[in-house]
Specification:
Layout lengths: L8 E5 L5 H11 L6 H9 L3 E7 L2 E11 L2 E9 L8 H13 L5 E7 L3 H9 L3 E11 L5 E10 L6
Parallel strand pairs: 4-5
Antiparallel strand pairs: 1-2, 2-3, 3-4, 5-7, 6-7
Helix pairs in contact: 1-2
Bound molecules: coenzyme A.
The site of coenzyme A has 20 residues, from strand 4, helix 3 and helix 4.
């Protein structure tokens, strides 16, 4: 996969040695971040983790689970100092092109309060399929709904 982003950024698949950097990125991006061990478990279970590397620093990632003709986005994160430069949009557009060869549908779940991510996914053409009530843990022992979204892909390589 190639990405039309800054030349200093290298796109590659994560390896076990990247899990600590991925967990650091997650802590900068999520209220309930994955740990090193959770990224390792994800890789070991066969998930694909694409990352953008800037001179040894992991600045963005996207974790995908693929099952038959569907794929699910499990994690997307961009380092705070790299946001609003099109990284997530370009990374996901690249993945969509890559997946289109043999995938019919791309799925994801996002916190209902995550307006930045909702806007990103809507811009990429995802539609909202429903809500999973009280799905995510939130602050002060509360819970938060998940918005279920999907994007239909060609699934025929075109
Ligand atoms: C959501 C996130 C991945 C976006 O990454 P990014 O690289 O900054 O996004 P991009 O620059 O590619 O933005 C693409 C589009 O996303 C939307 N968007 C991104 N950040 C936004 C923000 N802060 N507010 C509103 N819309 C936003 C916009 O539609 C934007 O298009 P525009 O620039 O034409 O307005 C990033 O803010 C992040 O890592 N957040 C924390 C982790 C997270 O929420 N992950 C998603 C979990 S489902």
């Amino acid at each position: 996969m190639t990405l039309p982003v800054t030349a200093s950024l290298q796109l590659r698949l994560a390896e076990a040695a990247d899990c600590s950097a991925l967990a650091t990125l997650a802590r900068s991006a999520h209220s309930h971040p994955w740990s090193d061990a959770q990224y390792l478990q994800s890789l070991e279970s066969g998930h694909q983790c694409w990352l953008l590397d800037s001179e040894g620093e992991v600045v963005a990632c996207c974790v995908l689970s693929r099952l038959f003709d569907e794929a699910e986005i499990l994690d997307v994160a961009v380092s705070p100092s790299w946001r609003r430069r099109g990284l997530a949009e370009n990374l996901l557009k690249g993945l969509v092109t890559e997946l289109s060869a043999d995938t019919q549908r791309l799925l994801l779940e996002v916190r209902s309060s995550n307006l930045a991510a909702l806007s990103l996914y809507r811009k990429l053409g995802f539609s909202e399929d429903g809500l999973r009530k009280n799905y995510y843990p939130a602050e002060n022992g509360c819970r938060e709904d998940a918005v279920l979204m999907s994007l239909a892909l060609d699934g025929n390589g075109s």
